Amino acid sequence: MTPRITLVGGGSTHWTPRLLADFANTASLQDATVTLVDVDPDSLPPMLDVADHMAKCRPGLGLTVNATTDLDEGLDGAEYVVTAFSVGGFTSMRHDLEIPARYGVRQPVGDSVGPGGISRSLRSIPVLLGIAGAVERRCPDALLLNVTNPLSALCRAVTRETGVRTVGLCNEVVGTMFVLSLLLDADLRRIDPVVAGVNHLPMLTGVTVEGEDGFARLRELLDDEASHSAPVWMNPLPAQMHYRKVTPDEQWTKADVLAGNRLKLELFRRFGVLPGSADTHVAEFFPNFVTPASDFGREWSVHHYGLAGHIADKWDDERGVADFLAGDELTPHPSGELVAPVLDSLQRGRPRPLPMNLPNAGQVQNLDRDVVVECIGVATDGVLRGRDVVHVPSVLGETLRRVATAEELTVEAARTGNRTTVLEAMLADPVAGAFPYEHVVAMTDELLSATKPWLPQFD
Predict the structure, then answer these.
(1) Gap between the Cα atoms of 83 and 143, Å rounded
(2) C-alpha to C-alpha distances, 29 to 1, 20, 168, nearest whole angstrom
(3) On the CB side of 192, how many CA atoms lie within 13 Å of its CA?
(4) Beta bridge partners of 251
(5) pLDDT of residue 237
């Protein structure tokens, strides 16, 4: 049966080319009908050009791509709805980063947790709920796959306020599996993590590597400094992973990879749990790492995007589109994003374990039921379920509890427009809440004032 996929935010130069290429490279999706929906009519023709060029590069490709600015029209008949959007773009995001910085809150990324993540949630949740409401009207049996940040909070809003089946997808755990493959000389396909957490702070409480205890192998490597000079089987992508090479030779070594993951490995040494995201994300959950004492995390090798970094990523995406249109080849390699693998698993009835953000049905024991948690999920009989039952120990589990609490308050504030609830979310957040009370109050008021054009619920 030909899958019908709607991509809301279909004018994205980041998401649309990647996902269309993944669909083209996935046998069960190659004849899909894809509808691109975007509020910006000028963003859609370039993406249709991308789709047309893919068809020229791959004769016989059955992928059908069309576009519309009418959400209801775009949702009619959809089986899968992918949401990828940014409310206010860089104009609104500037406030998320610059206002907290004036109060001493330095956010390496600023789009998921902390004051920047809460602010972004407040303007994004009503939009996503509007999309979900349209899904209920036009294609109530569809699965909504959200890739928009703040991913956990947005998915929670949909599962709490609507009946739409929802999953959040992020490839950070796959990135950590790649790191483990480099450090342990292992086949990435034979690394099986046990995961419990929230998006951008998924916790690996265990991992099997080629049938062995991966944590035991990792501890052995960390204790054997002589082995750190060994080359890795594949050079990492420093531009994407933001690694800084620390060894003098051209060849990348395990020491270079260890240096790029200092923060997560410190938490692993201390608490026996390995955070499953890049350190740039992990740092945003722990106020003790991004401080003046460590040059705001840089001594821990934490990369700071800043607004300029986010804009540079956008430029890279646009250059990538231009380069593709100027060439004659469609890459056969997967993007690393998880939308196509999840859809392939559902289409083929193949219960492949993949990182997913799903409502907590007991898979993370020390978080409340129904909050959205990141876990390893599988598709069984067309239903996405968590695979493992996990308890996250120590202060790391307490950090997850605080983040989940802040996300619940954020969803409530976004729904009701209650300013006091926004302040409660800020105080519950492990990073924003670590600052002086009067600063948090003033920062919250300033964020709400600066982003008012995108917050109609607070009028």
Answers:
(1) 11
(2) 10, 10, 20
(3) 12
(4) none
(5) 76
The pLDDT, as a whole number, for residue 239 is 63
- Contact status, residue 414 vs residue 125, Cβ threshold 8 Å: yes
- How many CB atoms are closer than 10 A to CB 368? 12
Q: What is the DSSP letter of 245?
A: -
Q: Of all helices (H) and strands (E), which one includes residue 55?
A: helix 44-57
CA-nearest of 343, 386, 381, 428 to 147 is: 343
Give the Å distances, CA to CA, from 230 to 226, 233, 236: 8, 9, 14
Residue 212: helix, strand or coil by DSSP? strand
| 389-438 confidence digits (pLDDT tens) | 999 998 999 999 999 999 999 999 999 999 999 999 999 999 999 999 99
In single-letter form, the type of residue at position 299 comes to: E
pLDDT tens per residue across span 297-349: 889 989 999 999 999 999 999 999 999 999 999 999 999 999 999 999 999 98
Is the bond into 248 cis (omega within 30 degrees of 0)? Answer: no
End-to-end CA distance of the chain: 47
- Strand, coil or helix: 36: strand
60-87 confidence digits (pLDDT tens) = 999 999 999 999 999 999 999 999 999 9
Q: Which amino acid is at 215?
A: F
Question: What one-character-per-residue DSSP string does 90-132 give?
Answer: HHHHHHHHHHHHHTT---SS-SSSHHHHHHHHHHHHHHHHHHH
Residue type, 301: S
Per-residue model confidence as pLDDT tens digits over 169-216: 999 999 999 999 999 999 999 999 999 999 999 999 999 999 999 999
